[in-house]
Amino acid sequence: METDWPLIAIRFALYATLSGLFGLSAFSLYGLKAGERADALALRPWLVGSGLLSLLFSGIALALLAAAMAGAPPWPVDQEAIGMLLSGSATGAAWEARMAALVVVLIAALMASGRAALLGVVAFAAAVALATLAWTGHGAMDEGAVGWVHLGADILHLLAGGAWAGALLGLVLLVARPVGRVDAAHLTLTHRALHGFGLIGTILVGTIVITGVVNAWLLVGPAKLPDLPTTRYGQLLIAKLALFGAMLALASLNRFRLTPAFERSIAAADHHGALRALRRSLAVEASCAVAILALVAWLGTLEPPASAI
Questions:
Q1: What is the dihedral angle through the alpha carbons of 140, 141, 144, 149, rounded to the nearest 10 degrees?
Q2: Domain match, 291 and 146 both
Q3: Less CB within 10 Å around the terminal CB: N or C of the chain?
Q4: Are both 155 and 286 inside the same structural domain?
Q5: Residue 161 shares a structural domain with residue 309
């Protein structure tokens, strides 16, 4: 099977922008106070920009998917194939729901200005938009009760992963603030956000692990586990698990060593070394998250091993 790089690239772009949109809006609600959101993160430009890019990438993805299903080149755009996809498939309905949700995101983000109620609307609509990606992957391939379990696990996996990735974006933005704009208030805010993400991060990791096991069982099955290293799907899945393990190790380092060291450095008025260590760790963790999103985009275009179920 020939690798469809344009489709993989646009899938990755959608995973990245929608995860950032949902995760960052959610992080701004539980990690920051009302008066801090606009100044600490420049939240509105990030949300509006992510929403606009998601609309653009969704349009391109629809054209590429319709072309792939019709066996036609992506250009010129096959309007008949797009019409059939939109009118006669769950994938088309999911795409329409995503576009409607993104319009809501843009309207609420433009009006939000840090207000919790409107940011809650942004986060909810962004969650809906992110969840619709489950209909473009393996989560929608089964039928009956198994199909609903698979789809539900895929949606929860997407939302938990998106919340983690978006929170990483928010934390990176906080610790990467230019030195000239870092004052005592920002340092305190940053420490509180890092510390507060500990419990949320634990819940997200638990959700990712449980839903990942469910998805692996349905897509691979125990009987096929020994064959994973011999297939492209298995090799990419193993790489994804290795990167996830690296993210867990870095998250533990941040929570149990670097964040407490950062707190002590604030009290001693000597935060530069601790902040540099946090920046490096969060940058590597965020890079792992980006690589995982790229692998997920690629995995979704491959045929998984037959399940033993």
A1: -50
A2: yes
A3: N
A4: yes
A5: yes
Shared-domain flag, residues 53 and 77: yes
Q: Name which of 237, 238, 278 is nearest 257 in CA terms.
A: 278
Q: Count how many domains the chain has.
A: 2
Q: Which two tokens stand for residue 180?
A: 């000239």
What's the CA gap between 42 and 265, in Å, rounded?
A: 26
Residues 6+ apart with CB under 8 A from 46: 20, 24, 173
Please write the tens of the pLDDT for every residue from 217-262.
888 888 788 888 889 999 999 999 999 999 999 999 999 999 999 8
DSSP state of 78: -
18's tokens: 């929608």
Per residue in 50-91, pLDDT tens?
999 999 999 999 988 888 777 777 777 778 778 888 887 888
Do 237 and 96 lie in one domain? The reply is: no
Look at the block and give the residue holding tokens 């993400």. Answer: 197
Structural domain that includes position 159: 142-309
Asked if 1 contacts 286 with a C-beta cutoff of 8 angstroms, the reply is no
CA distance 45 to 205: 28
pTM score, two decimals? 0.92
Pull the structure tokens for residue 127: 């969650």
> What's the rounded Cα separation, in Å, for the pair 301 and 129?
20
User: Distance between CA atoms of 298 and 305, rounded to whole angstroms?
Assistant: 15
At which of 106, 136, 166 does a domain end? 136
CA 275 – CA 182 distance, rounded (Å):
11
Residue 279 neighbours by CB under 8 Å, 6+ apart: 172, 175, 176
